[in-house]
Amino acid sequence: MKIRYLIILFVFFSSYIGKAQESLSETQKLAITAKVWGFLKYYHPNVANGDFNWDEEFLSILPKVQNANDKTELSLIYSNWIDSLGEIKKCNSCDSSKRIEYFENNFDLSWTLNEELFSAELSNKLRFIEENRFQGKQNYIDVNGRGVLEIKNEIKTQDFEYPSRNYKLLSLSRYWNIVEYFFPYKYLMDENWDDVLIEMIPKFINSKNASEYQLDMLKTVVKLDDTHADFYSNEIGAFFGKKIIPVQLKLIENRVIISDYTNDFLAKVNNLNIGDIIESVNGKDILDLIKINNKYLNGSNTIVKHRNLEFKFSSGSSDSVQLRIQRNGEYFDKTVGRYTWEQIISKNKRSGEKFRLLSNNIGYINMAYLEERDVKDMMEILRSTDGLIIDLRNYPTFLPHKLAQYFIKSKESYAKIIQPDISYPGKFLQTKPKTISPNKKGFYKNKVVILVNSETQSRAEYSSMLLQTGDNVVTVGNQTAGADGDITIIQFMGFGTYMTSIGVFYPDGTESQRVGVKIDIEVKPTIQGILLGKDEVLEKAIDYINNSK
Prior knowledge:
By secondary structure, this protein is of the alpha+beta class. It has 20 helices and 21 strands. The longest helix is centred in the N-terminal third of the chain and has 21 residues, at 2-22.
């Protein structure tokens, strides 16, 4: 009798455990729905070609999903959904992709075969769709002639600034799936993208107002660890404040210091000096403010996050802010004016030389002002110099192919590119290495030094890679922005943001994303250097050339 009782008890608990294992939380069900919806959006032939209002399909399936009690019921809902989309014809050309050399670090459809989530029947249907995926002109995505992703036909609802619950989920699902299939550097992110979806679903649902909702968007974008990826809206502007102080701040040696003026006149009006150390803002310790605001700071690496920090904790809505400043070892409290960006720009009259001759017969080129049409005449003027310094601590006006040609003796490869294959979403095509040929009219034989720092971003980083092919070129400075490659505007729902959409690598396969460009001689700014008004990176470059003569 006792044995029989134990057998019954074992069967009961086995059945209970089995049901418990099959049960899924609301967040899990919503995350799975977002993934299935996104997969069908880009893979199913009858969806990818635009036959369905796919947003409405998402909204229609949600009530059914929420009523599902376990894996079996949920799989049946998805399976019936797929059946309702119509017949899928055999794709004869899909097999040809097996012969393509793909970049697959971001590709993972293993979730479609997860036995804990899906029935075998559903997994088979999802696999069949992958094997017979859409090969025509996609309704929601495209690539331009440069291989850059373009997002299209995404509908904006009238109440997108703070939509209802299910529209919030739709907004997150839209954005998440674009990143899932088309962000070339997803594999480099600090957080697993699946985990981000699980984390953000309840945040989006439970946001109480437009400000919270849009701040959750910003937090999601920041998780891309991509300097190109930022998010701004009127609500976010109101949250942080749209007025800023007229100086540039840097975190150096764990101190926040004024490193430059964004407006010379307004900085002087407020008696702010380069080298001033900011201790607190409105009575709050500045290092504590950095920690609090870290979740809002976008950037590929810590250096860039700190480059962007002043707009998050020194900004505000009021016309002034109370700062505690350390200057020459003395501390004092000061009320400092805040200004709109338009006010700062309108009073800022800075200009710069394209190139000039430094002491000891060294040429200096400022890529922020140099134009492509200047290259030939400039190189004639600077040909007899004992060395060249090319400053890329800025955003260049052009890609310096013509300039780089003076520094090589033979054809060189400078970059490898990957671009999204929209016929197989999640996979990236590897293009032939980018090459550059020498200038037949002359080779500049002396030392060339490239200057880089955290301001060196995107085109400037690509330009650095191009110039680094030179036979006598070295790079001096500190970690760059780590955001290389063309950008794409991608969508939540009504709100656009940016994402790097082409992958750029050195010819040896080394990433520039997140880590920045290769540096031969590292020079980090110091507080002492700023106080003395030194350009430590430039000084190191000059020393290098002088010692190489």
